[in-house]
Structure formats: C-alpha cells, structure tokens
Amino acid sequence: MRSLLFVPGDDAKKLDKSLTSEADALILDLEDSVAPSRKAAARDLVAQYLKARSGNPGPKLFVRINALDTGLVDADLDGVMAGAPYGVMLPKANGGRDVTHIGAKLAVREAEFGLPDGATTILPVATETARSMFQLGTYDGASHRLCALTWGAEDLAADIGAESNRHPAGGYSEPFRLARSLCLFGAAAAGVPAIDTVHTDFRDEAGLIADSEQGRRDGFTGRMAIHPSQVAVINRVFTPEPQAVARAKLIVEAFAAAPDAGVIAIDGKMIDKPHLRQAERILAQARAAGVA
User: Which residues, in sequence order, are CB contacts of 75 under 8 Å at separation 6+?
Assistant: First the structure.
C-alpha cells in the first residue's frame, strides 16, 4: 500500500468521493474526525458503506476504531464487522499486547458474522503515546493479523507536552525523529511494511514531496494522507521508477543464474546478498503498484 487516505466516517459525501482518489487504501474513521455525539451514526454509515462495496474492486478498506482505553472498541467492532473490512486501524497502540487483544476481539466477530477466521488485518498507530515508545520491539509475533506499522506525531506531541513536533524550519524535532525511526525498526523486526505518517499541511505539496522522498529512501513503503489532493503525489513517490525496476531485475536475474555465488559483479560494482534483498523488495513494490 502506497497511499492510505483518511475519510471521516460520518460524512457520506466524502465517503463516496473518496473512491475517486486512486488511494490504495481508505481509512474510514470512527476516531478523531468524528465527534462523540456522532459515533453511533458513523458506525452505521461505515457499515452501510462496507456492505455496499463488498466484493467490488477498488481500494482496501480499513476502519480506524477508537482506542482501547475509550470503552468504545466493542461498539465499533459490533457496528462495522458485518461489513467485512479489510482491516482495522488501532490508534494509540501500546505494543504487541494490544494487537493480540484486538485480534481476539476480531476472531469473535468473524465467527459471529460468518467471516473467514483471521481475514481481518490490524494496522496499529504505534507511537501516539509516551508509553508506546518503549514497546516498538514487541510487535514481532504478536499476531498473524499484523499487516503494517505506522506512526503518529500529533497525539504524541500532546501526550508529552510538546509545543510542536517540528522545527521552525520544517523538519521533525528530535523526539519525533526518534519515534519515526523506532516505527521503521519495529516494522522491520516484525516483518511488515512501515507506513509513514500524515503531512498535515495539505496545501504544502513541496513539503509533502520532500518528506515522502525521504521516507522512501529510509525504508517506508507508503504514507497516510489527510486530503485527496495528496494521493497522487504519494503514489508517484512510492512507485519504483523504471530505472530502479530494471536494475532490480538485473540483480535478481544475475543471482538466479549463479545460485551459489555470494557476490557478483554488475557494471564494475560488487553486488552481494543485501543488494539482492533490496532488489527483491523493489520488484515486490513494483508488482503491487502494477509497474512490473
């Protein structure tokens, strides 16, 4: 998944319009974008939307439920699971134990609604509390449902009392750079993709491009979006370029032709197994994006 677009779960017009965004996934939100008085209505609307889209081609459909400590999770899942979402996004996750907990709740609803066991994936937002920062290594083995990890800077800033999460010049300040890096490492340790956080200024296309390119270079495979206008940029940045795909194919083919080789030479450069793993990753991303 290159692009994951947030959509307020209580806004029918935005839900309908989101399908034209070309996002790889939609995050139907029951949490921050929905007022407490609108939670029940949002559950009903999201459930109807999921059922209407069932079996149709298009983006993967996640539901961002409320955090475990809100007391709203059971009502959220009871309200939307009949629509068979691709996955749930768990905000303010505090480690692998929370993923295991949500997985058990999902298993009950899958059985209740006649869904295949294990069909619903889990995408935690893994850095939104100070406590969560010490748990990024616990997602490995927490659940077969884990499909990716992402991170958040806004709630984390509120939790630690930060005035801002960025320097005046625009880059993330050190606590948030650490959160971002630990999310990347935690995802790699768990064997799942790392998804970069939102760029909150949706009018700042230059900043979105620069942030996204840096994320791709660091190892993120996609990022979340808060506005449809961001999707095309995100898709473009996180789609491997033709030159990179051609180079990756060359490396994979060279090692396939010499299966016992630890190192091979290509264009006068020594290429070893870490380069092979990176090439395989590029080709997997290209296939997912439909360019290989």
Answer: 39, 40, 43
Q: How confident is the model at residue 151 (pLDDT cuts 50, 70, 90)?
A: very high
Q: What is the pTM of this model?
A: 0.93
259, two tokens: 């299966």
Q: How far apart are CA 19 and CA 22, in angstroms?
A: 7
Q: Where are the alpha helices (DSSP H) in the chain?
A: 12-18, 39-53, 73-80, 96-112, 154-160, 174-190, 205-218, 231-237, 242-257, 273-289
Residue 277 CA to chain centroid, in angstroms? 22
Q: How far apart are CA 26 and CA 170, in angstroms?
A: 27
Distance of CA 145 to the CA centre of its chain: 13
Q: Could you tell me which residues are beta bridge partners of residue 209?
A: none
- Computed on alpha carbons and rounded to an integer, the radius of gyration of the chain in Å comes to 20
User: Residues 44-57: pLDDT tens digits?
Assistant: 999 999 999 887 88
Q: Name which of 172-176, 232-236, 263-267 the model is least confident about.
A: 263-267
Which domains are present in the chain? Answer: 3-237 (3.20.20.60), 242-289 (no CATH)
Chain centroid, CA 116 distance in Å = 23
How far from 180 is each of 127, 183, 222, 230, 234, CA to CA, in Å? 8, 5, 13, 20, 18
